């Protein structure tokens, strides 16, 4: 193991340990601000698919391959579309509030300042709209990249179909192969963007920036520490996504979400999910502090070097005049 890899692993371990310590040292506070904002996100992500299938698609079966055809997948009513939009707005609002209150609280803890639930929630008056601006800009870029590659995929499919190289049907294996290939191409790009922008929300809260400027600032700060950011994202993100997706499919398939046991297990999984999500946000703040410290050191080093050179030039001019 080389030095850079070992340092990266040590830094990742320190950040994970620091996030856990921060959470445990102020557990009551973080639970108090996470339950109103982060808990509903995880809970609804688990329950909503079952709710939607039960209301709008009661005959849907996961084991039926015919229902995986694209016409059936996208045959949704206008009311269902409106409900999805409202649900997306719900997730956005609670996500921004959860990020803002958690980030504010962690910064207060790091600087050894007193924290309380009221002040954390009040901080959203200042940071909500900047966070919303950053969220809109980042998601617009994400969606733009996704649509761009989708258009490229459609164009390639049409060209291949016109040449007679493939024959597409609604359940064609060729189409499934192209979709998988598209995901293989687009997912790494989206992950790369996410790594570059992993500190954007922290910058929005701490430095009072917003929009595209925070994305540029984040990419600049995280440069050189992307592997650490990737490990943090993988460590927390994989567990959260797997837990939410697996249990959401389990509820939707077995229709146990209406039973007492199903509700109890759902609440327990949601609680575990919001704790992991909270620690992920804490870890991002710790990573930001580390990256900012490194960036400040580099800036001071460059400034000191510049001052030294300038001083040398001035001394040379003085000596020359004296001669």
From TrEMBL:
Q: Signal among the record's keywords? A: no
Q: Which UniProt keywords apply?
A: Membrane, Transmembrane, Transmembrane helix
Protein name, entry field: Uncharacterized protein
Looking at the keywords, is Transmembrane helix present? yes
Q: Which residues cross the membrane?
A: 30-51, 82-107, 128-155, 175-206, 227-248, 260-282
